[in-house]
Structures are given as C-alpha cells and as structure tokens.
Amino acid sequence: MLAGKKSVVTYLVDFQGFTRLHLAPTASTTASSSSAAELHHHTPPDLNKGEESKVFQKVEELVEYITKRWQHRWVTTDIWDESVLQKLLRRPSFFLVSVDAPLGLRWQRCKMRCASDGQRAPSLEEFVARNDDHLYNRNKGLARLIDRAEVRLVNCSDDLEQLHRTLEELDLPNEQRLRPNWDQYFMQLASLAAQRSNCMKRRVGSVLVREKRVISTGYNGTPRYLKNCNEGGCQWFMESAMIRG
Questions:
Q1: Residue 21: in which H helix or E strand, if any?
Q2: In terms of Cα–Cα distance, which of 15, 145, 154 is closest to 88?
Q3: What's the rounded mean pLDDT across residues 9-36?
Q4: The whole model's pTM is what?
C-alpha cells in the first residue's frame, strides 16, 4: 500500500522498455486490491497518458499472451493472490519483486493522495488496520506473496531521482536473475552441498568442475564410517567444548 509500485512500473516503462499489463480482479479479489488510495473503493486500472497497455480478464489469458511474446519485457502489479502467482511462476521468464516503505511514510503519502482526490484521509489507526488486513488477512493477505519475492526493494524516500538511482543499481532487466551464469550456478551448487555438512563449527561445500561439467560434490565432516560431528565423532570439537565448559 503506497510503497511506490506505480513509480517503479513507470520507471521500467519509461526507461527500460517494459510494457505494463493489467489483470482484472475477480469478485473475490477486489477487496484485496494492492493499491492504497483504495482505502475507500476499488478503481479500474489507471493508465498513464499514452501508455500502451492491455487488460486481461483471466490470468491464463495473460500467461498465454506473454508466453508467445517471451522476448519482450512485461510488468504488472496485479498479482491478486497465490493462485495468480503460481500460474506466473510456471514461466521461467517471470520473477517477483516486492516494493515496501516505512509505515509512517506510507501514511503521509495516503493523506496527500486523499487530499488531492478530495477524500477524507484516514487516521493513523485506520490506516494501520487497513494495512494489517492488506497483509495478514487469512483469505486475501499478501504477506505470503511478498515472502516469495526474489527481489525486495525498500523505498524510504519521496525523492524520485533517488528511487531511479536505486533501480539502476538493481538492474532488474539483467537476465542473470532468470538464468545464473556458470560461476553463479556452481557456487549455488556448492552452497547447497554445504547444507549436508554436520560439522559443529562451520559448513563448507565444494564442487569439482571440468569444462563446465560437474565431476563431483562434497562437504566437510568426519570421515566415512565414523560418527558424525553432531553425534560426538569430532574429537577436536569435543575437547574444545570441554575446555570451554
């Protein structure tokens, strides 16, 4: 709510060659709209003057559209619930970005927007209650979606140039976010292998690679056929623990 999603979308459209897509809310999702001047009511998608955009009635239609045009850049803010997100996540060219801002800053933005629209501004208590419902409502809360975001942007300023500089540094169109390069790929494998370690001091994973082919993976711990570190098999750790104890 009023975290700056529209400003991020405008930047991507104006400077990064994205086209905005809209997904119409259903009767069950209208109340959980992710835009916040909708503290009072839901409004249809607002298109900037001259903005090229399309509105889809069903997420399946949107997914089919972008799949056929996978080489283009698309952006939407209309991820109403987990069912919509699940269908989008099936496409390898999709990744989720969350935009957040401090509660007090968002409340100030809400009051300014309501004043410009000639509406009564909510009290802080009303705004907090609406924000809690927006995030944590058992049926329509968006907190579970936000937790699944690959990129999390905190917009702490009303300075649009500062937001643009942050977005430039994030480099959202970078294709390595969708498909890691070889070094990233192998390091992620090593990090995953490290999760198998039972060392009580530190976890270390390794990947042996030749000509971009994985030969073997490994992780630190006691030798085979000996007790694991976490079962008392590491004499060094046990002695150190006794000295410290």
A1: strand 19-23
A2: 145
A3: 78
A4: 0.74
CA pair distance 52, 75, nearest whole angstrom: 12
Q: How far is CA 175 from the centre of its chain?
A: 16
Alpha-carbon gap, residue 229 to 232, rounded angstroms: 5
- Report residue 86 as tokens: 């699940």
- Listed residue (2, 86, 69) closest to 38, CA to CA: 2
pLDDT of 175-199, one tens digit each? 888 888 999 999 999 999 999 998 8
Question: For helices 5-15 and 160-170, what crossing angle results, to 10°?
Answer: 70
Answer for the pair 137, 32: CB distance below 8 angstroms, yes or no.
yes
How do residues 83-104 score in pLDDT, each as one tens digit?
999 999 999 889 999 999 999 9
Q: Is 172 left (phi over 0), alpha (psi -120 to 50) or beta?
A: alpha
Mark residue 118 as left, alpha or beta (left: phi above 0; alpha: psi -120 to 50; beta: remaining).
left
